[in-house]
Automatic annotation (TrEMBL), chain A:
Gene3D superfamilies: 2.60.40.1230, Leucine-rich Repeat Variant
Name this protein carries in UniProt: AP-1 complex subunit gamma
Membrane as UniProt keyword: yes
Pfam families to which the protein is assigned, alphabetical: Adaptin_N, Alpha_adaptinC2
Location (main, coarse): membrane
Subcellular location: Cytoplasmic vesicle membrane; Golgi apparatus
Family, per entry: Belongs to the adaptor complexes large subunit family.
PANTHER family in alphabetical order: ADAPTIN, ALPHA/GAMMA/EPSILON
Keyword tags: Cytoplasmic vesicle, Golgi apparatus, Membrane, Protein transport, Transport
TrEMBL record, chain B:
Keyword Repeat applies: no
Subcellular location field: Endomembrane system
Family membership noted in the UniProt record: Belongs to the adaptor complexes small subunit family.
Protein name, UniProt field: AP complex subunit sigma
Length: 774, 145
């Protein structure tokens, strides 16, 4: 017996005690519905479809109702239409052929006089249209987007969004209308228009340019929202239309990214929103969240708004929820600057103590990086790294360790201090591998200072360190359960070094005996060291010379990349040692052309070596993301047309594959040959070839400089030659690290002179690598 | 964009569900997923965050009496905004049904669908203003008498 109304069916299902009961009821009802459909019972169709939708929601098959929904849509009664469209939305998706049958009904309904019916049609189209339907009905939606009725305009905007998604080519049709809608006063229309624009910007980055002009308008809207008094219809617990605010902020973020002028315009309002919004409730927090994200992404000089919340962020580090802790961690690292480095590092070290292991590696690297960049003095720096080693020594990367050792060797005045501290910490704890390695190395190198220094404060007790104490410690490390092969190698070397640092014969003999024990070690490396060191004892004359103090490593500032918690440092890109041959005459020009403004307040520490040409390279990097000091670079900024000849015409000339011509002017051609690095898919090796095709004379003093977007890093090898005879070529290899897999774009500067006295200094942009390359 | 909108009660029964494009879910998987989500929400305590990750989506949920309102969304949306959307939706339902309860939702499921349609279209927020959402709905109700 079929249940006539949906209510009865629901009651019956609720009355079922077991799942089997429920299944039985539903199957009986399904059968009844099917029969009723076959009988073309028009009156009962409505309730049948309603029941079918309910059954569908519970997870039972309901495809036989699809045609019925279509019939309902065709009916004239509003209730039928509404249910029919709902049924279509729930039961059908764009892949079903049945959907095309609806197209005609949709077209008729979109032209209907009743705005609710139009709304229904737009809703349905917006939810499930297929690409073909989108193309068919695009014109109708365009018309409705310009309708005078706000209800319709609202829905049309979202429908347009779906169309754009399905058929990106149709985007241009909606541009103007969308822009006009931005002037609307109705919040619903505004909201949907902004959503539509955001979608357009995501799909097609060129439209971002068109919409940049609307930034002042958006700022005005946001200002009205923030400073408006209480508005009854839009108020949500004290905040005026938070959804609209969030959407405007999101659009501002997209428009402001990478564009200084737009970012300037929105700085004020961002600061205002950040300060005025009440953060005690979720509403306020949602707005603050969006604001913070926007501030971080656009080039804002003024990150004070976020600094204000530093304490909250630090508290969040201790929150119970792990996702909050993770975000707080990322944010804290982004906030570190000279003024707050001490406080923040202290907090972060406290957090390191209790952090989960998955955080520890990322944290150690970042803390040491931050310490490197912002350390107020050396002692603090050493202390901090020591503390890190003590807390999480097992999670410290090798580069950090080697940086630390380099730092220690360079800070000769603190050698004694460091040696003592390491000795003390090793005495208490030998379980942290990196700490052990660092400590052993330092003790080995500076053992004599350690003994001479003699006394050191440990918990207000002055302790004497004697040679046998040190040897005891090293032996205990060797014998301890934490020693692995690397540790043993280090300890043996350290012991050997001590034989030339220590003076008492008994110590030296003790060490010799100990080393000889390892002559028969199973580990080959260890055995080799032991045997060689033992043999060294026979050559008394040269032994001290061999074991002299290590020379202080050069002041080589490295380019160490930021890690995510799970990311990997690109070990291949080591120190930036590019030595672009810089002709002296061009150097001054470089200095004058580029602004000498400070590097942007960004996270990646690209510090150049002392060589001047690399300073120029940093300024090139500034070109790509022009910071606050733009005036002097304006004339040089690429208003020149970029030579983007992606044509593979050079293929014929050179017979090489995958050559892209980046620059071809006045007979001088620069072509690029990219290839992915076999060892690391994040690195792109580019072979740059300079062709002197038609200059007619020798190209001399060639200088080639390049810059990449901020998310990537560049390393350049020296060119094969800086003089190119006519018809000859020269090569240069550059490597681009692209961990974020973003578009590899290059800004190139080509400088050369000819014997006739002509000087060429050109800038070109290259953006033509296909997506597979990166 | 929003991926789905789900109302489940404490016994794990789905009271209302709406999926938006891009969710390739067949009936059986759907049921399983809904039950799984209900379980996860039930397990969480009051002090835990209302937003968590589930597979490739993020879920934001709030419990009102015996019902969990769960919204699944992906990267682009502002998480806290979604929570606000849930609150707005509940308030609108409250006004429409006069102190809404689970039974109201169960027995008037088409109305609930219609109200959600007015607020969210194809996974994007259209309108959150109570008056603007309810006025058309009431008009349409009159028209379908």
């Amino acid at each position: 017996m079929p249940y006539y109304r949906l209510k009865d069916l629901i009651k019956a299902i609720r009355a079922c005690k077991t799942a089997a009961d429920e299944r039985a009821v539903i199957q009986k009802e399904s059968a009844a519905i099917r029969t009723s459909f076959k009988e073309e019972n028009n009156d009962a169709r409505h309730s049948n479809v309603a029941k079918l939708l309910y059954i569908h929601m519970l997870g039972y098959p309901a495809h036989f109702g699809q045609i019925e929904c279509l019939k309902l849509v065709a009916s004239n009664r509003f209730a039928d239409k509404r249910l029919g469209y709902l049924g279509i939305m729930l039961l059908l998706d764009e892949n079903q052929e049945v959907l095309t049958l609806v197209t005609n009904s949709l077209k008729n309904d979109m032209n209907h006089s009743n705005m609710y019916i139009v709304g229904l049609a737009l809703c349905t189209l917006g939810n499930i249209s297929s690409p073909e339907m989108a193309r068919d009905l695009c014109a109708e939606v365009e018309k409705l987007l310009g309708s005078s009725n706000t209800y319709i305009r609202k829905k049309a905007a979202l429908c347009a969004m779906r169309i754009i998604r399905k058929v990106p080519d149709l985007q241009e049709n909606f541009l103007n209308r969308a822009k006009n809608n931005l002037n609307d006063r109705n919040h619903g229309v505004l909201l949907t228009a902004i959503t539509l624009i955001i979608e357009m910007c995501y799909k097609n980055p060129e439209t971002v340019q068109t919409f940049r002009k609307t930034v002042p308008l958006l700022v005005r809207h946001l200002k009205t929202l923030v400073s408006a008094g209480f508005s009854q219809e839009h108020d949500v617990t004290g905040v005026t239309d938070p959804f609209l605010q969030v959407k405007i902020l999101r659009l501002l973020r997209i428009l402001g990214k990478g564009d200084a002028e737009a970012s300037e315009a929105m700085n004020d309002i961002l600061a205002q929103v950040a300060t005025n919004t009440e953060s005690s409730k979720n509403v306020g927090n949602s707005i603050l969240y969006e604001t913070v994200q926007t501030i971080m992404e656009i080039q804002s000089e003024n990150t004070n708004a976020v600094q204000r919340h530093r304490n909250i962020i630090l508290d969040c580090l201790r929150d119970g929820d792990i996702s909050i802790r993770r975000r707080a961690l990322e944010l804290s690292f982004a906030l570190i600057n000279e003024s707050n480095v001490r406080v923040l590092t202290r907090e972060l070290l406290a957090f390191l103590e209790v952090a989960d292991n998955e955080f520890k590696q990322g944290m150690t690297t970042k803390i040491c990086l931050a310490a490197d960049r912002f350390a107020p003095n050396k002692r603090w720096h050493i202390d901090t790294v020591l503390r890190v080693l003590k807390l999480a020594g097992n999670f410290v990367r090798e580069e950090i360790l080697s940086n630390f050792i380099r730092l220690v060797s360079q800070t000769t005045e603190l050698n004694a201090y460091t040696a003592q501290k390491l000795y003390a910490s090793l005495k208490s704890d030998i379980s942290q591998e990196s700490l052990t390695l660092a400590g052993v190395w330092v003790i080995g190198e500076y053992g004599d200072i350690l003994i001479k220094g003699g006394n050191f404060e440990e918990e207000e007790l002055v302790k004497e360190v004697t040679e046998s104490d040190v040897i005891d410690l090293l032996e205990s490390i060797l014998a301890g359960p934490y020693a692995n092969q690397v540790t043993r190698e280090y300890v043996l070397t350290a012991l050997m070094k001590l034989t030339s640092r220590f003076t008492s014969i008994s110590s030296i003999q003790r060490i010799q005996a100990y080393i000889e024990k390892y002559n028969t070690s199973i580990e080959v490396e260890v055995q080799q060291r032991a045997v060689e060191y033992s043999n060294l004892f026979k050559f008394e004359s040269i032994r001290p010379a061999v074991l002299e103090r290590m020379p202080i490593p050069e002041v080589k500032e490295e380019v160490v990349r930021q890690t995510e918690d799970t990311g990997s440092l690109l070990d291949d890109i080591g120190p930036v040692t590019a030595t672009t041959a810089t002709p002296q005459n061009a150097k001054n020009d470089i200095m004058n052309l580029f602004s000498s403004g400070s590097l942007l307040d960004d996270i990646d520490p690209v510090t150049a070596t002392t060589a001047a040409p690399l300073n120029a390279k940093n300024d090139i990097m500034n070109l790509f993301s022009p910071g606050p000091t733009t005036p002097t670079t304006a004339p040089v900024a690429p208003t020149q047309n970029a030579q983007q000849t992606n044509a593979l015409d050079s293929l014929g000339l050179l017979g090489l594959g995958d050559q892209y011509v980046a620059y071809n002017k006045n007979g001088f051609k620069v072509s690029l040959n990219p290839s992915k690095d076999p060892n690391n898919s994040n690195i792109l090796n580019i072979e740059v070839t300079f062709h002197n095709v038609g200059v007619g004379v020798t190209v001399q003093n060639l200088l080639f400089q390049a810059a990449v977007p901020k998310t990537q890093k560049l390393q350049m090898q020296p060119p094969s030659s800086t003089s190119i005879l006519p018809g000859a070529t020269a090569q240069q290899t550059i490597r681009v690290a692209n961990p974020q897999k973003s578009n590899v774009r290059l800004r190139l500067r080509i400088v050369y002179s000819t014997p006739t006295g002509a000087k060429v200094d050109e800038i070109a942009e290259f953006n033509g690598f296909p997506q597979e390359i990166w | 964009m929003l991926r789905f909108f789900l109302l489940v009660n404490k016994q794990g029964q789905t009271r209302f569900s709406r999926y938006y494009s891009g969710m390739p879910i067949q009936a059986e998987e759907r049921v399983l997923m809904e039950a799984d989500i209900a379980r996860k929400c039930l397990k969480r305590s009051d002090v835990q965050c209302s937003i968590f990750e589930y597979g490739q989506y993020k879920l934001a949920y709030r419990r009102y009496a015996s019902l969990f309102f769960v919204i699944g969304f992906d990267e682009e949306e502002n998480h806290l905004s979604i929570l606000e959307l849930v609150q707005a939706y509940v308030e609108i339902l409250n006004t429409y049904f006069d102190n809404v309860c689970e039974l109201d939702i169960m027995f008037n499921i088409e109305k609930v669908h219609v109200i959600l349609e007015e607020m969210v279209s194809n996974g994007r927020i259209v309108e959150t203003n109570k008056h603007n959402v309810l006025a058309p709905v009431l008009e349409m109700n009159k028209a379908s008498r």
